[in-house]
Amino acid sequence: MTRAWILPILLALCGAALATGLISSGDPGTAVALVLGFVVLAGVNSPLIFPRSISAPEAQRRSAADGRPVVFWRPGCAFCLRLRIRLGRGARQAHWVNIWRDPDGAATVRAANDGNETVPTVVVAGRPHTNPDPAWVREQLRQV
């Protein structure tokens, strides 16, 4: 769990350090803007922006029952973030698996991507799709 928070914490600390330097040089307005920017980046890269992750076996079981896609992702992945943002509120309909928290999920992604942990990998009806177009995923969610 702590692994997922490393990037957001580093971003927040870097923003604080840079802001401290700006404040000491007499530029508090820029420091505040910089801190806000880094806090937004940290929030976007945190596990808070994504729906609650479940285990890969549980996601596959639920997907078989309801037909919804399974999205394998990891924190800090810009392509995962793009998919999550473009899906909007519909993202909560998919089953999300954090491959950093779930070894079975990481193994599933490696099996689908020639040994690479390329995310997002979306599994629909048992077929993996690596970094699919968000519009396509949105359409898959509408069909269920």
UniProtKB/TrEMBL annotation:
Residues of the Glutaredoxin domain: 70-127
Protein name: Glutaredoxin domain-containing protein
Keywords: Membrane, Signal, Transmembrane, Transmembrane helix
Record flagged with keyword Transmembrane: yes
Family matches, as InterPro entries: Glutaredoxin, Thioredoxin-like_sf
TM region positions: 29-50
Keyword Transmembrane: yes
Superkingdom assignment: Bacteria
Signal peptide: 1-19
